[in-house]
Amino acid sequence: MSDSDHVFELQDLWKERRDARTGKTVSVLQGITAQVEAGALVTIVGPSGAGKSTLLSLLNRLEDPDRGYIRYRGRDLADWNVLELRRRVGLVFQQPVMLDGTVEDNLLFGPRLAKSERPIDTAAFLERAGLPPEMLRRPGHELSGGEQQRVALARTLVNDPEVLLLDEVTSSLDLESEQIIESLIRNLNIQGLTCIWVTHDLGQAQRLDGQVWVLIGGRLEQAAPARALFTGERTPLADAFLQGRLRERERTAL
Amino acid sequence: MSDIQLLSTYAFVAIAMILSMVQNLKLERELLIGTIRATVQLLAIGYILQFVFSMQSWPYILLMLALIVGGAAANVAGRGQGLPRVMSHAVLALTVTEIVAMGLLLVLHIVDATPQYIIPVSGMIVGNAMVTSSLLVNRLRAEVAARRQEILVALSLGASSAQASAVILRQSIRAAAIPIMDNLKTVGLVQLPGMMTGMIIAGANPLQAVRYQLMVMFVLTVATSLCAMIMGYLTYPTFFTAVHQLRSELATTGK
């Protein structure tokens, strides 16, 4: 398989972090090697502290690995203009954060940065996220958490990304918002958008029915299609995690 | 003021000490150390100024100015502990501020180019710019910590470090400059500014004292805003790497 079939190639990624409380350095990621194919829907599951969010922040270069490298479309991340890379690889965070101004200001934040001249139908982006066009004039801070997260998702999509990174985006939302976001992402994925979705909700990983990466203690314990994984083809450690039987000493980095 | 008169003023210290002992405030030691330090420091400065004034030569004036800027920069650096290159940034910001403010005063012939004017006015300019810079550094660091998530969102949408911190930088500069502006609005209503008081006691016509006070306040307004701006623009990039990554470890609320 040639390089170009892979959107992302992750090669032996290591990342250390200083624990603010104990002052000790821990290896959050311990040699992650994996590939993401174009148009894939990858869900990353694992216990908290397994390094899921850290891994996402490496993919759009909010952080750099201490060792190893990442290639995007065959080119090392360091060779990309980082600002352009972040437009191509959009990231939505767990906690929705509204920037200053109205919902429309939020949606146009990316295009305004790029001084883009292309016309943008902001109302259409809102409607795809299940929100009424009248909301455009409202201050972002006034919306509910679920509405804010849908605006945050639309705000990233306005940038017209090639890959979408999602960091537990539905974990603090009501059921309705969660369903709207899930179906929106699924539709986008069907249309060819590559998605990498971190979740702690195993039911969600099963529903999304894509490739699942099980991350435990900073290592990629298993990567398998959701169907295979949830019908029992698992490594012992992945099995322990999926059954909720993972012991404390196995969760965290060794 | 004669030596006898000066010595008599220590009666005030004695009263404070007696009050402290009667009330068991345990402030005697602090009072004693404070009194001795103030006396020694001010006398030393008095003799140094007397010497520099008598020399009337630029090398001594510039040396004095360098000491003033260095001391002030060290103070700002103390507030900004942990931030990269904060000392050199403070030296640069304060030096530029002093050159611009004092330069204008000299070029426009508002003050004479003699140490009697240059050194005390410079002390006021740099001293106030120092306070503003410290406020700026503190505020900027606190804002970056408090709005970390917003910065990350902006970066993720393709913003550069400058674009991601523009709002925070503006707010921090405003916040740092506000105390001086407030000063401008209330001056003279509650108490007379120190310099004006000094001139009046020394026998100057109050209206003449007012003129100098206005000059000083206008100069300070410009100087502090300018210094806050320079310091802000030098400091915000230190929170980011060259590839527009937030250095979260610097963005703490401080000690």
Structure description:
- The complex is a heterodimer of chains A (254) and B (255).
- Chain A has 254 residues and is an alpha/beta fold.
- Chain A has 11 helices and 10 strands.
- Chain A has a single domain, classed as Rossmann fold.
- In chain A, strands 6-7-8-3-9-10 form a 6-stranded mixed sheet, sandwiched between helices. Chain A has a 4-stranded antiparallel sheet with strand order 2-1-4-5, covered by helices on one side.
- The mean pLDDT of chain A is 93.
- Chain B has 255 residues and is mostly helical.
- Chain B folds into 2 domains: 1-55; 57-250, no CATH class.
- Chain B is globular, with a radius of gyration of 22 Å.
Discrete helix count of chain B: 10
What is the rounded distance between the termini of chain A?
A: 34 Å
* Beta strand % of chain B: under 5%
List the strand order in the largest sheet of chain A.
6-7-8-3-9-10
Low-confidence stretches of chain B: none
CATH topology of chain A: Rossmann fold
Provide the low-confidence segments of chain A as ranges.
none
Structural domain count of chain B: 2
Alpha carbon gyration radius of chain B: 22 Å
List the helices and strands and how they pair.
The complex is a heterodimer of chains A (254) and B (255).
Chain A: E1 6-18, E2 25-37, E3 41-45, H1 52-59, E4 67-72, E5 75-76, H2 82-88, E6 89-92, H3 103-107, H4 109-113, H5 122-128, H6 145-158, E7 163-167, H7 175-190, E8 194-198, H8 202-208, E9 211-216, E10 219-225, H9 226-230, H10 236-242, H11 248-251
Parallel strand pairs in A: 3-8, 3-9, 6-7, 7-8
Antiparallel strand pairs in A: 1-2, 1-4, 4-5, 9-10
Helix pairs in contact in A: 5-6, 6-7
Chain B: H1 3-8, H2 10-22, H3 28-55, H4 58-79, H5 86-107, H6 115-146, H7 148-156, H8 161-186, H9 194-201, H10 206-235
Helix pairs in contact in B: 2-3, 4-5, 4-6, 5-6, 5-10, 6-8, 6-10, 7-8, 8-10, 9-10
